[in-house]
Amino acid sequence: MHPEAAKDKRVMEEKGRSEDKAILGSHPQEALTEAEWNGDWDVIVVGGGVIGLWSALYLARSGAKVLVLDGGTSQDCCSMGNAGLLAPSRCKPLPEPGRIREGIAGMFSSSGCSPGVSFGLDPDLWGWLLRFALHCRRSPFQKGSRILLEMGLQSLELMEAEFGQEEEPFPAREGVLYPYFQRMAWVRAVHQVRSRQIPGLEAELLSPGEAREAEPGLAPSVLGAVLQERDRRTEPERLMSRLQEALHKEGVRMLSLTRVYALDAGLRGGVQRVRTTCGSLRAKQVLLAAGSGTRDILHSLGLWLPLRAGTGWSISFSAADPVPKRGMLLEEARVGITPWAGGFRVTGGLELSGREKGIRRLGLQGVLRRARSLMPGLDYSGRPRIWRGNRPLTPDGLPVVGRMPGAGNVWVASGHANLGLTLGAASGSRVAEAMGGFGKEPIHALAPDRFLRD
Ligand SMILES: Cc1cc2nc3c(=O)[nH]c(=O)nc-3n(C[C@H](O)[C@H](O)[C@H](O)COP(=O)(O)OP(=O)(O)OC[C@H]3O[C@@H](n4cnc5c(N)ncnc54)[C@H](O)[C@@H]3O)c2cc1C
User: Hey, whose CA ends up nearest to atom 48 of ligand 1?
Assistant: First the structure.
């Protein structure tokens, strides 16, 4: 057995002891036939997270023979335990003007008191932070926000076209609530709503009384709230399951617990073989949608992208009473609270680390403490399910979607940071169009070669 395969088997066995599940495991998988192992796939998609699945769906609809490979379990997949907000109104890059004043280290903090960055002597991390700081300027922020907003709105339309207005996976149109507790932040939010109504994304300002009527569990200190009616929410696990169903119908093959550890270059520069822990496969094109794992796969080709993992957590209480009436983002506390499985889910944390496997108690406790103090009307006494996810982050706050320079048939769709669920359908449809050669390149500003240009 290949050493990588043996290592993966050990990890899977360890994980098998917990209630963790393979990502592509919610639908029966048939083993590949010998002909499929030996044949040429039109596209191999590496990564069965939300970006990989949407991309595979549109690729299959354009007529391609598609195989999705995923190496992990739900603990490795950022798309599984997150807040599930589909929020075009919050589509903006992470590097914002003012972030430097606020302290970039403080931003990547889950505990709310200490930096969530292990600074150490990691030159790559320092280089990444420097690039991030250089993007905390008005002009790249405004340009990035326009691109992300357009993608967010397109994504919602695509999702609604795919799943209709069904309750599943999207609950009724209830909007998302953004409550505020600090005067400066509330004044800024009011100013933004009054001065910058975006067509199709009109927001309503709620007084403290109206905010608590909309969400009775909020602390009495709430100063007001913004209700974004167009933003929606889903339970991420249900959305992923619906996507897998759609892929099955399109004849897409999916293999879980199959990790890609190397890409072999062919004579003409592109990738010829995809090496996995279960065997090697041939593909005409390869799409790397492996979230924060994308960078390691590129290494095997001697290629690089400035992707880092930003770790966050969710703490899910099933079957609780009362439950929140709608999805909520407490922006000052950087905490999300959403209805989930008859209970609710608290999410938060953004630590620039991602390498260590343990769950940092300090960060988790910080997220929960802030949720309790701002939303005391919920019952936090049950035994929660704890999850950790690694967001794929780029230093300019925009996803990387496009062809990888220096490797003709390798494409990338990653770096969706806080917005993977919100942007997934648009990213998937754009990369599929470009890979299918239908003339449209994904947006120039998202192309991987932008990092080689600056
Ligand atoms: C706490 C938290 C809350 C969030 N809330 C929201 C939200 O409300 N709304 C929103 O839009 N976004 C949210 N996000 C962000 C969102 O979860 C991510 O942007 C999104 O899931 C990224 O999707 P992805 O497909 O790129 O990566 P992933 O979901 O991580 O999928 C990548 C997949 O690739 C696989 N993989 C990795 N390496 C390999 C390899 N070598 N071989 C084979 N497979 C491999 C992994 O197993 C994984 O399944 C949140 C994130 C966190 C952490």
Answer: 77
Strand duo 176-180 + 66-69: pairing: unpaired
Quote the radius of gyration of the chain (alpha carbons, Å). 21
Angstrom distance (rounded) from CA 331 to CA 127:
28
Within this chain, domains 3-79+237-307+397-453 and 102-120+164-231+308-392 share the same CATH topology: no
Pocket residue to mutate for ligand 1, from 8, 67, 82, 233, most atoms within 8 A of Cβ: 82
Q: What is the CATH number of domain 3-79+237-307+397-453?
A: 3.50.50.60
82-98 per-position pLDDT tens digit: 999 999 999 999 999 98
Nearest to 142 by CA among 97, 186, 107, 200: 97
Distance 232 CA to ligand 1 centre (A): 19
Top pLDDT among 221 and 12 is at 221
Assign domain 102-120+164-231+308-392 to its CATH architecture. 2-Layer Sandwich (3.30)
Name the residue of 308, 421, 423, 431 to mutate for ligand 1: max ligand atoms within 8 A of Cβ.
421
pLDDT tens digits, residue range 158-191?
A: 999 998 766 677 777 889 999 999 999 999 999 9
Average pLDDT, the chain: 87
